[in-house]
Amino acid sequence: MEVRTLTGLMKMVASTSPDQIAVSVRGKIELTYAHLRERVDEAAALLVFSGVEAGDIVALTFPNTVEFVILLLAVIRCRAIVAPLNPTYTAERFGFCLSNSGSKLLLTPQEGNQQAQFAASMLNIPHLTAKLHSAKSKITLSSINIEPSLDLMCKVVNEPSDVALFLHTSSNMSHPIPVLLTQHDLASSVQNIKRVYKLTNSDSTVIVLPMFNVYGLVAGLLSSLAAGVTVALPAAVRFSASRFWADMILYNATWYTAIPRIHQIILDHHLSKPQPAYPKLRFIMSCGALLAPSIRAQLEEAFGAPVLEAYAMMEATHLTASNPLPEDGEHKPSSVGRPVGQEMAISDEYGAIRAVGVSSEVCIGGPNVTEGHKNNPEANKQAFQSRRFHTGGVSYGGLDARFSASRSLADSAAWVSHMSEVASPSPSNDMPEGNNAPQTTEENNTETERGGEEGGHGLTMEFEKFSGPKNFSYEELMTAIADRKILGKGGFGAVYEGRIGKARTQVAVKVINYDSHQGMNEYKSEVITLSQLRHKNLVPLIGYCHEADKFVLVYEFMSEGSLEDHLFKGKSLLTWETRYKIAQGLASVLHYLQKQCRQCVIHRDIKSSNIMLDEEFEAKLGDFGLARLVDYATGSKTTELIGTRGYMAPEYITTSRASKETDVYSFGVVLLEIVSGRRVIDLERDPIDLIEWSLKHYRARKLVHAVDEKLGKDFDKKQAEALIIAGLLCAHPITTSRPSIEEAMAILNLKARVKPRELPLKSPQSPLSINWKVSPRWLKF
């Protein structure tokens, strides 16, 4: 009889191989399949006691630990839905995922996760920590001190239709789309993987990929557990190249799965520090992107095992196609093999199947393919036609029913962001972060979805239309920043101080990290926008680089750092004259962007950290990765809501329409920061935000009290009042009550008088009062 649930498969393995090691953490814990089943049921009972009900969504944010394995299976066991999240997310991203999923509970390791906890607290989501002390002890949840009842779980029956997994995908959409996978989806997929790779209880593997993602979760963990395989978790709780082979040898591993970038790291480590001996591998699995033929050949030669390339998608609960084991067929270069357990076809935009050899879109259908994205009829209309899922990948079918798959350039940014999470789950001493990873070979440029040969050539041709920025080689830029002196770090990646050319010109080099919303679209926007703009108050873009998965931007060096550094991070105190000059310079460049360019430029992220200062303390507006060009007649653009909390206009938060007026609002907030030396939101300093605080002084007719106290009396009273009034007017909660940028400049230059009634006498809605549960997106902090 066919087993149609994941929990049913787990129960069957625990019955047939109770003493087989299921999960092992080197030198710490070993769980047999019988023990694993007990720990899962105990944890499920605790979750039910804590209030988790069938259909509730429970968020987990863990590295690759045994607690994650137990809790993931426990949430599914009590018929709830598990939402695994990357533990290195920012509070912004955690907030989006928790809000978008409607999570009822957040689970973290015993040491907690500050960013996740902060986001959960903003959404009033309860938080519990978990710890397993030994293989024979019960898992403990904070604040729950009862003895779990296994009798309770005996009454719980898991159905194939139960939704088990909630994931976010960016595979063919411009922003994350929820995907719900059922028990039946998971059971079908893991049995497909088990069958095509002939996994048995004689096999063992070491988890390489993060288990919050479908690649590590389904292919690495769940398919192994469903087959009785011994699964070893890294002692470092994440992939470590220096420890990988020691673990593989200890557990006599027979296979592993990874994405091309990690295969490259493993190969590089082997070439620099080869092991005396390697375990006898049956195969190596590669998915997530095309693997360069040279890398595949080197892997097979080094480790004596066939490298099987596969095509996997979240909507297919991972595996869609794979090259076969050697005994089952020939490996076809640059192919992802034959469909596994499902229908796979090439169709046109109307769903009609195309002829063999014709390039078109890959479509899939089968028991492991989700029926649709959650609460997104528009996405479903685009992606699900003729009872098939349209993947967005462009391919062609061969006469032997094998497929060659790639991804369209339009989907590249989301896919790069998605894959970087898999490649860089968290920092490690020997796993370089982001684009500091080993450079891929020239042949690896076949990875078009990561900015390689096809996409990179198209970008180069587009960029060459504009004069100014130079196309640098990646090698040249890595030489320029060889000292690795970091100027700044954030969700976008890192900015390094560098020196280029024979003259050793000092530059700032931004190496983009795709564990953020800064994908290829943002890189492209930055180059195209800044290539067309010329103003003394803009950060000059000197050059760019896109090779394989490397995206780098080169700027003129700003010796005095950012405005934020001086106002809030302890860099030298800015005099009043300097502050006033910075405000005027920012107004000037905003006027240029809104009134003097061929198209109106909407920046969307004006804030103190994006305002740089040169050696003369001249303000330079930077970071145009989110900028949008609109016709003057249009004046606004509906976009994905993205920006920084506190700097975003109320109407932008509620409608996602960015406009000149929303940039004016952000400008007003920065003016208030300049004059006061206070952050727009600083809960440790004041329970109210900066706009409310400034209005309080305005209503009391004590505007000078809003001037930065560190300046003492060393400021111009008229200029200070003008700055505060301009800031409050620009940050007016009502769009139509804000001044144009010309009017704001007139106020700053003391050429316009403002009547008191023109200022908002009633406090605007504070960013602190926004109901984040109903807010349409999540914002940066």
Automatic annotation (TrEMBL):
Record localization: Cell membrane
GO molecular function terms noted in the UniProt entry: ATP binding; carbohydrate binding; medium-chain fatty acid-CoA ligase activity; protein serine/threonine kinase activity
Keyword Acyltransferase found: no
InterPro entries, per database record: AMP-dep_synth/lig_dom, ANL_N_sf, Kinase-like_dom_sf, Prot_kinase_dom, Protein_kinase_ATP_BS, Ser/Thr_kinase_AS
Residues covered by the Protein kinase domain: 481-735
Record's GO cellular component terms: plasma membrane
Region annotation Disordered: where it falls in the sequence: 420-457
Keywords for the protein's UniProt record, in alphabetical order: ATP-binding, Cell membrane, Glycoprotein, Kinase, Lectin, Ligase, Membrane, Nucleotide-binding, Receptor, Serine/threonine-protein kinase, Signal, Transferase, Transmembrane, Transmembrane helix
Membrane topology: Single-pass type I membrane protein
Main localization (coarse): membrane
Top-level taxon of origin: Eukaryota
UniProt: ATP binding residues: 510
Pfam families, per the entry: AMP-binding, Pkinase
Keyword Cell membrane in annotation: yes
Gene Ontology biological process terms from the UniProt entry: defense response to oomycetes; fatty acid metabolic process
Matching CDD domains: STKc_IRAK
Listed Basic and acidic residues bias regions: 447-457
Listed SMART domains: S_TKc
Family, as annotated: Belongs to the ATP-dependent AMP-binding enzyme family.
Protein name: Protein kinase domain-containing protein
Source taxonomy: Eukaryota, Viridiplantae, Streptophyta, Embryophyta, Tracheophyta
